[in-house]
Amino acid sequence: MQFLKKIAHIVECVLAEVLLGFPTRKINIIGVTGTDGKTTTTHLIYHVIKNEGYKVGMISSIYADTGDKIHETGFHTTTPRPWAVRSYLKRAVLSGCEYFVLETTSHALTQGRVWGILFQSGVITNVTHEHALHFPRFDHYLRSKVSLLLQSKRAYINRDMKTFDQVRHELVQHKKTYVTFSTKHTGAHFVWPKEMKTSLHGEYNKENIMAAYAVTSDLGVTDKQFEKALKTFKLPKGRFDVVYNKQFTIIIDFAHTPASFDQLLKSVRMDFFKQNRGSLIHIFGSASERDDLKRPMMGEVSAKYADMIILTEEDYRKEDINKIFSDIEKGIIKKGFSYLEPNIFAEKNQKKSYTKVPNRRDAINIGISMIMPHDTLVMTGKAHETTLNRGGKEEPWDEYAVVRKALKQHFGINV
């Protein structure tokens, strides 16, 4: 089935190229892939190039920009179908764009959705645990990411990622030269400049910055120009989004893997708990049809940093949500957390405890109702997404609106 889907996509790629006038050959395309950090890095590269006065287009998981218009890209979709990708590219060419930054998923690469595109630059932010359902073996998943670099004129890889040696091995096997970037390894081609400052939270965002720095430096952007652009850069919607930060803190983030949980929650601890005050409450779930094996790891990482956990829905599709909860609980219990029924959990506000609230709106309401001064509430997994898949049906969802309503209801706060 996967093979037939790939063939169909390749045929669609060829037809789209011919019928749309070969748009991929008329613009410089920069591809960004990785388990985590794709969206932020894509937006960073786009922002830096645009800041230098060039006209630039982009497709990310947030939206598409063709130089003349901002487009919504669809439900749970990062890299669209071949015809849509070429259509956006053609529109960008016609609007005068010189560059186009394309956030590129492993699915898009293995399913042939970007087949035939010769990327000017290809970058891997990192490769960690994800998509075990579609890639039963990790090396298959890793190779899907590497394939972007193999169809790029210039390849960039993160020297700081744990899978660096594996990625490098794949490139050497194909006799592909590559460029490295790092926040700390002095032997990398591009290393964090001592004078560069950023207000973005987290070490992982420094890695994203370095990815953008390496790519744009090779395009002729100077350190001074990059630093100037970085000062005006704002994280994409749903990426370490501090939506309220007065008597307590509320953060919305798209993190949905063990690695991104570790990066995000560690940063929250470092940035918002400097005086070791308050509690960290984490609300999350795990999507169906992605990677069941990561669930216990997500639970364990959450329990490593959070004081209290509320498990809830996250695109459970047709899977039994109690099965999803059970998978995540294995990791939470491993860290010594105790289960409490939702009403008791909210009332006791007890550290090292967790509860299960299937309805995400109810879960957020409980989390906000129990928040105390100096506490931090983090909700992950949905962020910018505008739908929630329940029972195989896409239903409208707005995480920000739910938070605003709960803040108004429980504290009379307008944000």
Estimate what percentage of residues fall within beta strands. Answer: 15-25%
Look at the structure and name the CATH superfamily of the largest domain.
Answer: Mur-like, catalytic domain
Q: Strand order of the main beta sheet, please?
A: 4-3-2-5-1-6-7-8-9
Share of helix, binned = 40-55%
Distance between the ends: 48 Å
Instruction: Identify the CATH class of the largest domain.
Output: Alpha Beta
Q: What is the third-level CATH name, the topology of the largest domain?
A: UDP-N-acetylmuramoyl-L-alanine:D-glutamate ligase
Tell me, what's the shape? Answer: globular
Beta-strand segment tally: 18
Q: Could you report the average pLDDT, rounded to the nearest whole number? A: 93
> How would a textbook summarize the main sheet?
9 strands, mixed
Low-pLDDT runs: none
Radius of gyration: 21 Å
Question: Care to describe what's here?
Answer:
With 415 residues, this protein is of the alpha/beta class. The protein folds into two domains: 2-231, Mur-like, catalytic domain (UDP-N-acetylmuramoyl-L-alanine:D-glutamate ligase); 241-411, Mur ligase, C-terminal domain (Protein-Tyrosine Phosphatase, Chain A, Alpha-Beta Complex). Helix content is 40%, strand content 18%. The chain is built from 14 helices and 18 strands. It has helices at residues 2-19, 38-51, 82-94, 106-110, 138-150, 164-173, 203-218, 223-231, 258-272, 295-305, 321-334, 342-348, 360-369, 399-411, and strands at 28-33, 56-59, 64-65, 70-71, 99-103, 119-124, 152-158, 179-182, 190-191, 241-245, 249-253, 280-284, 308-311, 338-339, 353-356, 376-380, 387-390, 393-396. The strands form three sheets. A nine-stranded mixed β-sheet has the order 4-3-2-5-1-6-7-8-9, sandwiched between helices. A seven-stranded mixed β-sheet has the order 10-11-16-12-13-15-14, sandwiched between helices. The longest helix has 18 residues, at 2-19. The N and C termini lie far apart (48 Å). The model has no long low-confidence stretch (mean pLDDT 93).
